[in-house]
Design brief:
single chain; alpha/beta; FAD/NAD(P)-binding domain; 2 domains; 6-stranded mixed beta sheet; 5-stranded parallel beta sheet; binds flavin-adenine dinucleotide
Length: 368
């Protein structure tokens, strides 16, 4: 019996570690990821100001997996009928599969946007944005962040902190098509984030749609906005085609599950769940239980299919850093300042500890 997990982000790595604990002996698990290291992606923007943080945010899979085999290769295709995965390093067969490849940045075919913007998902993007912004800071000018979701507002916050130390007074602008920052979140949380951006002199323009980009201008309907640097965090799309829609069992077909950012999950209450690290980790728990039940069922060859668990979206609250201003929710309360910062730090280090990256968790908590 062989289970393959495609992608070792929050969903894939949490799933693999749960499977290592739950599966009966004799079931093999392979984690396929194109990288050598797991990335703590929800903190990646922090490395814009603290490049040394990269070491705590990228953790070798070989230290995090015990029973599972890490196969470093790029997934290029999946044939669910023949139950095979095509990779840059050959074909793998499986009995059960979990698609946890995350998502890539969506450019929506907007003219010139992919060519001229830097996305922000991986450490190499952070390095490129930092390098370009250093040049903007030297000469003065304007950086525009397209998209005010969690990644956009946090990126703008970091850039604003850097801008505040530059003599040339560079301008940080955020453009958002919706009529609010952090669309989809509670009003009190959105207002607190907007206030934090305002305190950092970030120019937030909501209700503004980017329609295209040239090398130095953004096209906004009848207007144009000049820029010196353009960062795009305007949305996500699937890696192998569209993001798969799954219901609360996370099952795509008899032998395949999809979870984390790779899926559009509708939970047991019929709620369309947002693509976040919290969702990725939560869905991994449900998928691990369901894959284990199916593996036992296939091994024993008994008649009836097991009952599968259903994922319930139950957000524990949110914490975002807008530069040095952290905003968090605890239940329906919004908190700021040192308590919010402590909460954000403990969520990050708590996650790292939960996947076995204990020394990185300590380094991060100590601010190193
Ligand atoms: C700047 C930023 C800030 C964010 N802030 C927050 C936040 O404050 N709170 C929050 O909850 N969420 C936040 N998020 C969102 C969160 O990071 C994602 O929702 C989360 O990473 C999704 O986890 P995942 O496991 O589905 O995918 P990922 O973490 O993206 O993992 C996907 C994995 O698949 C691998 N992979 C991809 N393609 C292939 C391929 N073809 N072959 C092999 N391997 C492949 C990748 O290497 C990666 O390891 C933020 C995201 C960004 C970018």
């Amino acid at each position: 019996m062989h289970i393959v997990v495609l992608g070792g982000g929050y969903a894939g790595l949490t799933l693999v570690r749960d499977l290592e604990r739950l599966l009966p002996t004799g079931v093999e698990v392979t984690l396929v990821d194109e990288r050598e290291t797991h990335l703590v992606q929800h903190l990646v923007h922090r490395a814009l100001r603290r490049p040394a943080l990269d070491d705590s945010l990228t953790i070798p899979f070989e230290r995090l997996c015990s029973r599972a085999d890490h196969h470093q290769a790029r997934v290029t295709g999946l044939d669910r009928d023949s139950r095979t995965v095509e990779t840059s390093d050959g074909t793998l067969s499986y009995d059960l599969c979990a698609i946890t490849l995350g998502a890539r940045t969506a450019f929506y075919g907007l003219d010139g946007v992919e060519t001229h913007a830097t996305p922000l998902k991986r450490p190499e993007h952070v390095a490129e944005i930092r390098e370009r912004f250093e040049r903007v800071c030297e000469r003065g000018g304007r950086v525009v962040v397209g998209g005010a979701g969690l990644s956009g507002v946090q990126t703008a916050g970091e850039l604003a902190e850097l801008a505040a130390t530059a003599e040339t007074d560079p301008e940080v602008v955020v453009l958002e098509r919706a009529d609010t920052v952090a669309p989809g979140f509670d009003e009190s949380f959105r207002s607190a984030i907007a206030a934090a951006l305002d305190e950092q002199a970030v120019d937030v323009r909501t209700g503004t749609t980017v329609e295209g980009a040239t090398a130095n201008h953004l096209l906004l309907g009848n207007d144009r906005l000049a820029y010196d640097q353009f960062v795009w965090t305007g949305g996500i799309t699937g890696r192998l085609g569209e993001r798969k829609q799954v219901r609360a069992t996370l099952r795509l077909d008899d032998r395949t599950f999809a979870l984390g950012d790779a899926a559009r999950v509708v939970d047991a209450e019929g709620t369309a769940v947002p693509a976040t690290a919290q969702t990725a980790v939560g869905t991994a728990g449900t998928a691990a239980t369901n894959l284990t039940r199916l593996a036992e069922h296939l091994r024993d060859g008994d008649g009836f299919e097991p009952r599968l668990d259903r994922y319930r979206y139950d957000p524990k609250g949110w914490a975002v850093s807008v530069g040095d201003r952290t905003v968090a929710t605890v239940g329906s309360r919004v908190i700021r300042g040192a308590p919010a910062h402590l909460l954000k730090t403990s969520i990050g280090s708590g996650y790292m500890g939960s996947v076995g990256a204990v020394s990185e968790a300590v380094q991060y908590a100590l601010g190193r």
